[in-house]
Amino acid sequence: MTRTIVESKTKTAIIGFDEPFCVIGERINPTGRKKLAAELEAGDFSTVESDALAQVAAGANVLDINAGVVYNSNPDPNQTEPPLMTKVVELVQGLVDVPLCIDSSVPGALEAGLAAAHGRPLLNSVTGEEERLELVLPLVKKYNVPVVAISNDDTGISEDPDVRFAVAKKIVERAADFGIPAHDIVVDPLVMPIGAMATAGQQVFTLVRRLRDELGVNTTCGASNISFGLPNRHGINNAFLPMAMGAGMTSAIMNPIALPVKQSEIDAKKAEVAALGIVLPEDMEDETFCQLFGLGSTKPKAGKEMEAIRAANFLTNNDPHGGEWIRFNKAPPKPGEEAEGRGRGGRRRRRA
Q1: Which of 4, 114, 231, 315 is the most exposed place for a label (fewest CB within 10 A)?
Q2: Spatial distance between the Cα atoms of 34 and 57, rounded to a whole number of angstroms
């Protein structure tokens, strides 16, 4: 069975047909996040730190690292991105022990990340474009790392799944010319938005099966693409991910976190409750209020997508005896209970 090995200094993540689904946390990426981009340009890494810790706590097996900030002071990413990538990689791997995925469109940033990363990171990414193949595949070979292969080429992204399969096959064959084995290629067949293309889900399921059966490669995707532009995106994502897993998809680049409820949402709900004449205790904490009225949580925690993935792992026997599922659903101890439990345990040990 095909296995793609991704490693940090102390931990291994295996992407494979008979392995639990591999979650690649996507949050450390300034694309579309103006606040994070501004922080990184200013040398402020506080959001990077919190995102790294929260994603691992939510169950991410690998963390994607993208430092693609367009600096206001210098718009040339070939100059600014490599040193920033080095800083972010060094910071993140000093905080968490999971393997990393080095993500950039700038070859210099890819190499900077590879040079700074411990272990065997995943490289994101190569495409079927000739220039990209010639730039990235030598890096893959030089550093002996696995690589994400995206199924588009010089003609762009095709809506025809047969064309996207042909691009993936081309990349696998060109990689072989460099001595890179198929088990080190993780193909992204490109998930189209279901709101724009009604057959998008069916297409990707068929593609994943072909990639597994005909090329013997592992697969990944940007999971949230399927629900782009639609209401209740989590509902669609929660259905899509187990269905993709059933078709043979072995990993996804995704957000594992349910983001905290905004203070403005809490305040609006409190005003609504007060307007109904409901009187709440003055000392009620916001977290308790959120739980009571179904708003979510004031703290980042594992999202519903992670719940769907863990359930699917259990159902496909990639979580033997449901140990991970049980741990995931075990209620956290209330304040004081954990310490009390340790105290009781300590007394029992002393009596023994």
Answers
A1: 231
A2: 24
Instruction: Return the structure tokens found at 345.
Output: 């345990």
Cα 99–Cα 32–Cα 207 angle in degrees, nearest 5: 60
Each residue of 291-333: pLDDT tens digit? 888 888 888 889 999 999 999 999 999 999 999 999 988 866 5
User: What is the spatial distance between Cα 34 and Cα 239, in angstroms, rounded to a whole number?
Assistant: 30
Query: Using CA atoms, how far apart are residues 163 and 169, in angstroms rounded to an integer?
Result: 10
Residues 6+ apart with CB under 8 A from 118: 8, 9, 93
Q: What is the mean pLDDT of the chain?
A: 92
The answer on pLDDT for 343 being more than 60 is: no
* Whether the Cβ atoms of residue 219 and residue 187 lie closer than 8 Å to each other: yes
Counting every residue written for the chain, the total comes to 352
For residue 254, list its beta bridge partners. Answer: 25
- Dist. CA 65–CA 86, nearest whole Å: 10
What token pair was written down for 19? 């392995």
Q: What are the beta bridge partners of residue 5?
A: 14
Residue burial 204-238, b: 16+ Cβ < 10 Å; e: rest: bbbbbebbbeebebbbbbbbbbbbbeeeeeeebbb
What is the rounded CA–CA span in Å between residue 264 and residue 129?
46
Q: Could you tell me the pLDDT band of residue 345, with boundaries at 50, 70 and 90?
A: very low
Euclidean distance between CA atoms 257 and 299, whole angstroms:
10
Q: Is the peptide bond before 125 cis (omega within 30 degrees of 0)?
A: yes
Give pLDDT tens digits for 218-242. 999 999 999 999 999 999 999 999 9
Residue of 1, 5, 10, 49 lying closest to 27 (CA atoms)? 49
pLDDT of residue 333: 58
pLDDT at 351 > cutoff 50: no
What's the CA gap between 38 and 40, in Å, rounded?
A: 6
Residues 109-138: what's their mean pLDDT? 98
